[in-house]
Design goal:
This protein has twelve helices and twelve strands. By secondary structure, it is of the alpha/beta class. It has one domain (4-216, 273-300): Alpha-Beta Barrel (TIM Barrel), CATH 3.20.20.100.
Length: 333
């Protein structure tokens, strides 16, 4: 399988997002199933595993990843994020989001960054993090200060590459002036366009794009008819029952193109995204080995100019019902 470059970091075209393997995301899950999913991702060709110290309680997601990768560390690029696991005595710094609960809280003060990284290294059972991101810019800390703290970890050999997550083009430029940025993680899919200014800045600066929620929280697989209790998507307006029904109707033309090409809707969504930029790496998450294999196979799909034009026409014909971006308009501006 061909590789893609995120800055100077090579990885397979489709990574794996491990967030779904902790309870409280898509409902309950046991660790045995989570380990099996991670092994399926590696066996199918994924080389980048994305996690965060904020996924699951008490570092659960990182610990699960570490357990699954034991003995296979040299096959994997480990990407993780920090800022949500606020230390005792540190102040939560809140910012608005479009989830139904309205806001999230981080603390990315430089004095805590090394401690975050050391805990993640213990959780993951490794001595170096390949790609390390502030999960969100801290609204009360100069972004350059947070980035500078990560740069110190790179100099110390605890981190190989600096990444950024959920940033604006201006924040990317400010960070890059402090230390080269290998990758920017941002929401990007058929139903959530990338910020054009951010994409342009990443291309200019040589940073790759890591697309989170590339399947629209599972919607673009064409299989989501409702979300159950305990599923995090209950907090997302596009998964409200009325919006979800409307969106499924509106996306029927895309599903039709997938059938015509002999692809699953999810494979079409990932292949389309891979064709948008040679340095984009989507990180779909799934708990089912067969679906994980399908996602990885999307890297081999070639879409010609005519098909891409038809997809773009179908996407331009309507707007999805419900807010889709994580950050509020005020926060993004």
């Amino acid at each position: 399988m061909s590789q893609r470059l995120l800055g100077g970091l090579p990885t397979a075209p489709v990574g794996y997002g491990a967030m779904v393997l902790s309870p409280g995301v898509y409902g309950e899950i046991d660790d045995g199933r989570g380990v099996a999913a991670l092994h399926a991702a590696l066996d199918a060709g994924a080389t980048m595993i994305d996690t965060s110290d904020g996924y699951g309680a008490d570092g659960h997601n990182e610990q699960l990843v570490g357990r699954a990768l034991a003995g296979r560390r040299d096959e994997v690029v480990i990407a993780t994020k920090f800022g949500f696991r606020i230390p005792d005595g540190a102040k939560p710094h809140t910012f608005p989001v479009t989830y139904s609960f309205g806001e999230l809280a981080v603390n990315a003060e430089p004095q805590y960054v090394r401690g975050y990284a050391e805990q993640s290294l213990r959780n993951l059972g490794t001595d170096v993090i390949d790609l390390y991101y502030p999960h969100f810019p801290d609204p009360e800390v100069p972004f350059e200060d947070t980035v500078g703290a990560v740069a110190e970890l790179v100099a110390a050999g605890l981190v190989r590459h600096l990444g950024l997550s959920n940033v604006t083009a201006d924040q990317l430029r400010a960070a890059h002036a402090v230390h080269p940025v290998a990758a920017v993680q941002t929401q990007w899919s058929m139903w959530q366009p990338v910020d054009p200014a951010l994409l342009a800045a990443a291309r200019e600066l040589g940073a790759g794009l890591v697309a989170w929620s590339p399947l629209g929280g599972g919607f673009l697989t064409g299989t989501v008819q409702q979300v159950a209790d305990g599923d995090f998507r209950q907090h997302m307006p596009r998964f409200d029952a009325a919006n979800l029904a409307a969106n499924n109707d509106r996306y029927a033309p895309l599903r039709g193109i997938a059938v015509e090409l002999g692809l699953t809707p999810g494979q079409l969504a990932l292949a389309w995204l891979l064709h948008q930029d040679e340095h984009v790496v989507p990180i779909p998450g799934s708990r089912t080995p067969a679906h994980i294999e399908e996602n990885q196979a999307a890297a081999a799909v070639e879409l010609d100019a005519g098909v891409l034009a038809r997809i773009d026409d179908a996407l331009a014909a309507f707007a999805p019902a419900g807010e889709g971006a994580l950050l509020s308009g005020a926060e993004r501006s």
